[in-house]
Specification:
about 400 residues, three-stranded mixed beta sheet, 8 strands, rod-shaped
């Protein structure tokens, strides 16, 4: 049998491996049983002709079905030669007979939905799954029989570097890559816009919390969110690059792994700072809230209480009482903001309420961040349970029966 030197080295390596499994050490004695075992598992050298092609044996069809050559078993191994990091994805692709880039795209996609669990699974597989070092390992990884013929052909194909891919498969690859890449780019653009808008609104809200014990924790939460957002944008961009080029470069994968780790730390720190904010903010609100009694006009005949259309900094509450109607102003004593001025305007049986602030710059109109942080339902930072200006009325029940009243009932 004549074969290329590389093929012969692979065949010899496989023979050494099989002999080692039978307990034959280096420089040990090989028995006839060992030789017969090698022939059974790898084939008889006489089956090869001088030109390297396998001869058809007349009794081939009558070989025992129990022969291990005809029942190859697959082994899950890491293909580090084709791998980017530890060869886990390329090993899985070889084991299941699918394209390695598709496996890598799936693996990267799992990073977004598994919240980092996929990284732990990858590391465990990297440590547990053995590496395919020889041609015999790579054949077993694909479920092919490890014989003299297969070793020779595999080695020659590796040397030649032939990679036959059908046109249909290539078109399918490009379609999947382009579609996935475009979706990832759209997601990246959306996250980038959200990052810019959210960061701008967030720093505006942090400025409004001057005097709050929760302010430094809120700043830490915002910075953590920004860092996590940057990591998410980078992940989408790198994933789009890998999908569009249909190549998983080592530098790209390492960058994605670094972004994922940074994002995981950012999520953890966001949760920690968020818990601190949720604990400190109610205490700050209670500490800074002031209550002032308001002078009401004559309430005789008043059937309805309404806010002025431009009273966007105001929330009304009504508490049932058998006493004559009275009102209180609840506001937060913040730095740089003077006490709100409440005005009443009676028109017939309707009492209109308005409020004005001397420093409206400390209110953020329509800020989604204000709604998230302070629970506003009026579109302003000063709304609902954490209002900067809230007028509470105490009075009989007949005033609150009108359909035009604009306040919350409070027990």
């Amino acid at each position: 049998m004549q074969a290329e030197p590389e093929a012969m080295r692979e065949i010899e390596a496989r023979m050494v491996e099989l002999l080692a499994e039978r307990g034959v050490a280096k420089d040990g004695v090989i028995s006839l049983d060992d030789v017969n075992a090698l022939k059974t598992q790898m084939g008889d050298p006489k089956e090869f002709s001088e030109n390297g092609e396998t001869r058809e044996s007349s009794d081939e069809a009558t070989e025992s079905p129990n022969d291990t050559r005809y029942k190859p078993s697959k082994r899950l191994m890491r293909d580090t030669q084709q791998g980017v990091l530890g060869g886990v994805c390329s090993g899985l692709a070889a084991y299941f007979g699918i394209d390695v880039v598709l496996v890598r795209l799936i693996a990267v996609g799992l990073l977004f939905v598994s919240f980092g669990t996929a990284v732990l699974v990858y590391i465990v597989l990297w440590l547990v799954v053995p590496e395919a070092k020889t041609a015999a390992d790579k054949l077993q990884m694909r479920g092919e029989p490890v014989t003299l013929d297969s070793l020779k052909n595999f080695s020659m194909s590796e040397i030649a570097g032939r990679d036959i891919v059908s046109n249909g498969s290539e078109i399918a690859r490009k379609c999947i890559g382009i579609t996935t890449g475009v979706v990832a780019l759209i997601m990246m653009a959306g996250f980038l816009i959200a990052l810019v808008v959210g960061g701008w609104s967030g720093f505006s809200i942090i400025g409004l919390l001057d005097g709050f014990t929760a302010q430094p924790y809120a700043l830490g939460m915002l910075i953590s969110l920004i860092v996590g957002g940057i990591a998410l944008v980078l992940l989408c961009g790198l994933f789009a690059t890998m999908a569009l080029t249909w190549r998983a470069r080592r530098s790209v994968v390492l960058s994605m792994l670094a972004a994922l780790i940074i994002g995981s730390f950012a999520i953890s720190s966001t949760a920690i700072f968020g818990l601190q904010v949720s604990a400190e903010l109610p205490r700050d609100v209670k500490r800074l809230t002031r209550v002032v009694k308001l002078d009401l006009p004559d309430m005789t005949g008043v059937k309805s209480i309404r806010m002025k259309d431009d009273a966007m900094h105001l929330s009304l509450q009504y508490k049932k009482s058998s006493e004559p109607t009275r009102a209180e102003l609840h506001y937060m004593d913040l730095k740089g903001v003077e006490k709100p001025e409440v005005k009443f305007d009676r028109q017939g049986d309707v009492l209109y309420v308005n409020v004005s602030h001397k420093s409206n710059s400390r209110c953020v109109n329509g800020s989604a961040g204000a709604v998230f942080l302070l629970g506003s339902r009026t579109g302003m930072l000063c709304g609902s349970d954490f209002n900067w200006a809230r007028v509470v009325f105490y009075g009989p029940v007949d005033i609150i029966t009108g359909d035009t009243n604009q306040f919350e009932l409070a027990e």
